[in-house]
Design goal:
4-stranded mixed sheet; TATA-Binding Protein; 9 helices
Amino acid sequence: MSPLLLKALGCEVIELYSKPNGMFSRIAEPAAKNLGALENEVKKHSADIGFATDPDVDRLSIVSDEGKALGTEYTLLLSEKYVLSQKKGNIATNLSSSMASDVIAKENGVEIFRSRVGEINVAEAMKEHNCIIGGEGNGGVILPDLHFTRDAPLGMALILSYMATSGKTISELAAEIPKYYIYKTKLDLTGDTDFEKVSNNILNDFFDKKLDTQDGIKIIDPDFWIHIRKSGTEPIVRIIAESSCEEESKKLCEQIIKTYFE
């Protein structure tokens, strides 16, 4: 449906891997590392923007006019900035999404609400707090004016509208968003791991930090955050950190692993 929508919006569309034959022609996750072919096509055709989705089209990833995959976090951040430029209202996202959303909320004088990871949790937070835009950093955008579900074609329309109304390129708009780096890793849970005990140790050691325990433990500092949560579907623990330095985010995760899981 993406090419059909984009053509209806007046775009000149160059299609890649869009035959509806039941075969997905690249790694399904629309992460930046999987979008090399799209990056090359954007450069080859001097395109204004490139869009990539996952197979069920609820998550969107962007390649800039410079032929660089921005990463899925930018999909929600750009959508937030555009919607809030049109009207003011609260926003919501999950605990593992970028703190750039907090900056965007503050710039616009609105509140941000954080939920447990998962589309349904974000949607419930949006309903509870009357949010006008929300989503997750995996490329999922939710706009209540349409429906309470992540929607990649919706994200395309919002971002194209942002480009059109601002008169700026997507790389210029992306450059206006605070630059943070998220690092993600995971650990297999063995039978010897007492996650409840580990959690208590972390809570005790970080008592002087702001803590959010609605979904595992999130340690929050003005300059970084670390989220440690047990998967609900796999025997693993996910550890995610964000800071203004890529190496620092990696070190934060490694320190948690070394201190509490080794």
